[in-house]
Design goal:
elongated, Deoxyribonuclease I, Chain A, six-stranded mixed sheet, 38% helix, alpha+beta
Length: 590
């Protein structure tokens, strides 16, 4: 979507289908993508899970593997042992997952001890998690209330973790929570680890908890032990007037609790395939490109001696695009993003395959044959531990070798560290598009204008006598070449060629660029293409609601030639401001 701003600039937001002419002007290394979905929705339902994981920090890769193997879409985690700055959840958010978490409040902040407890919900991209405020803060248990939305369907999940001695306060506060969610028209799930032996029907606490759920029209759906030592401590409960979910109790080996897995009546969002237009830069013959560039209109002064700034800027775009189409034609690539671990090699695959074989063999063993069942189960558990240790070793070796290899390149090293710590960008939410972003950004600007409408007029510092800036000094070829050499190797979607290719051929393009920039300075005119910015909305904080466009900040990317013109003008302008003493001595930023 293209929008003209008040100052004459343009911004383009969103992933839209590209026409052949527009495609030719897109960034050469990775042209703006157009997101395609399946034409029909996938009929599969969402798969939920609940698991007392006992620390998510050192089990992130294991958690992701369990999600993939069991086709889990939404995971609810108990005893995450995390704080608000949890690296594991930051990494999940930058990978596109939706994360809603509630760490256990610390009584002291000046400690590095493990923060036990904690709750979290993790959902696949395309599924929205909304934290609900029930207006109650229980003290006898931890609570996380989430609305899960997928397409037009939604449900409410109440995640509970109770530990310590059982008291009547727990039932009082739990009843208060149920009073606030019982009237919800959406399907409700009460899940978590209540640490009550619900398998003991003669226990008074067990009977009281079961009767409490029954009084609100809820039924328990877990009947098998959920702990290594036996005992039914973890629950999945839903309304009796809805279809009864079949809950699988699975030992995934991540803690002393079993994982609970069931299907919820929400439509699973279809997978997203991205179509990107790229150029095969490895096939570019640089010498042949230079030969054709020398014979192009950009290196024939007679062809552009009488053109204005708009025509010169357009000539640069069309000629460079035509050369690239001849040498490295753009091609369309369709792919589906699938997460994978770079350290997961053939040895890990073989170990995982053996682990699955032993797991199936243990499940097929006749439980009445105690000796055979015990031996098969022991072999499976031993192999599973070996596999997890191997994966952990491979991961540590991968990052150690990566740090050692990049220690001489601090910039690349920090990129790797940022990726490891989850400091990347959070992907945009599919629920909002360019129109919503435009409206939010326009409303923000209008709000600033209305709030400052009654402000007093600005004051200006008088110019020191004898100083004036009536025109800019004409640029030379050396000025342009030096400025291009200092450019970072980054480019915008507005650039027909990557910056590195521009640097390699600046000695050929310098006469044309000097003419273009000098005409801009002498006429006081900037080409309209230099004002067009590709705006990327970035979430202000990773843990904010990605479906709210007000929580994004717009990052505008101008073309390299536009920023190059700024770099060439800035020294002359700053020299005048300093000599005329128009800058405050306390000037900072901006």
């Amino acid at each position: 979507m293209l929008r003209r701003l008040d100052n004459g600039a343009s911004i383009i937001i969103g992933n839209r289908s590209l026409t052949p002419a527009a495609t030719a002007r897109r960034p050469p290394s990775l042209i703006r993508v157009h997101v395609d979905r399946h034409p029909s929705t996938v009929g599969a339902k969402l798969v939920f899970s609940c698991h007392n994981i006992r620390s998510v920090t050192n089990k992130l890769e294991d958690l992701l593997e369990v999600r993939r193997d069991l086709s889990i879409n939404v995971s609810f985690l108990v005893e995450t042992w995390h704080d608000t700055d949890c690296v594991a959840f930051q990494r999940l958010r930058t990978d596109g997952f939706q994360v809603v978490d509630r760490p256990r409040p610390r009584t002291r902040t000046d400690t590095l001890a493990t923060n036990h407890g904690g709750l979290a919900a993790v959902a696949d991209p395309g599924i929205r998690l909304l934290l609900l405020d029930l207006g109650v803060k229980p003290t006898s248990f931890e609570l996380l209330s989430v609305r899960v939305t997928s397409g037009a369907s939604a449900c409410v999940v109440i995640l509970v973790y109770r530990t310590g001695p059982i008291t009547t306060l727990f039932f009082t506060e739990f009843s208060d929570v149920m009073d606030r969610v019982a009237t919800t028209v959406e399907p409700i799930y009460i899940i978590g680890d209540v640490n009550i032996r619900l398998d003991r029907t003669d226990d008074s606490w067990s009977r009281q908890f079961t009767e409490l759920l029954t009084s609100y029209g809820l039924a328990l759906h877990v009947s098998a032990p959920t702990h290594d030592r036996g005992g039914l401590l973890d629950i999945v409960s839903s309304r009796v007037d809805l279809s009864t979910p079949s809950v699988d109790v699975i030992d995934v080996g991540l803690s002393d609790h079993r994982l609970l897995r069931w299907t919820a009546p929400l439509i699973r969002p279809p997978p997203v395939y991205s179509t990107s237009v790229r150029r095969p830069w490895s096939r570019l013959d640089t010498e042949a490109f230079k030969t054709d560039l020398l014979s192009s209109a950009l290196c024939r002064p007679n062809d552009w001696s009488g053109l204005d700034v708009e025509q010169l800027a357009r000539l640069y775009d069309t000629e460079m695009t035509s050369l690239l189409d001849r040498h490295v034609p753009a091609r369309s690539v369709v792919c589906r993003r699938r997460p994978s671990d770079p350290w997961f090699d053939d040895e890990c695959r073989a170990a995982k395959r053996l682990t699955r074989q032993l797991e199936r063999a243990a499940r097929r063993t006749d439980p009445t044959d105690v000796a055979a069942a015990t031996a098969a189960n022991a072999a499976w558990i031993a192999q599973r531990r070996t596999y997890l240790a191997l994966r952990r070793q491979k991961r540590e070796q991968f990052w150690q070798s990566k740090v050692d290899a990049e220690c001489s390149d601090p910039r690349q090293l920090w990129r790797s560290i940022d990726a490891l710590l989850g400091r990347g960008r959070v992907p945009l939410c599919d629920a909002i598009g360019p129109t919503e972003f435009h409206r939010a950004f326009d409303d923000k600007v209008n709000g600033v204008r209305s709030s400052t409408a009654d402000a007093p007029p600005p004051t200006f510092t008088p110019v020191t006598p004898g100083f004036s800036l009536l025109d800019f000094r004409p640029l030379t070829t050396d000025d342009v070449v030096a400025a291009v050499r200092q450019l970072p190797d980054k480019h915008s979607a507005s650039d027909p060629v990557p910056t590195k290719l521009l640097k390699d051929n600046v000695h050929l393009l310098a006469p044309f660029l000097v003419t273009l920039f000098n005409r801009c300075l002498s006429l006081g005119s900037v080409p309209s293409s230099f004002k067009a910015a590709y705006v990327t909305p970035l979430l202000k904080k990773p843990d904010l609601d990605s479906a709210d466009p007000k929580l994004y900040r717009p990052i505008a990317n101008l073309s390299v030639l536009s920023k190059l013109l700024e770099r060439l003008v800035a020294p002359q302008l700053l020299n005048y401001l300093n000599m005329a003493r128009l800058l405050s001595e306390r000037q900072s930023a901006y």
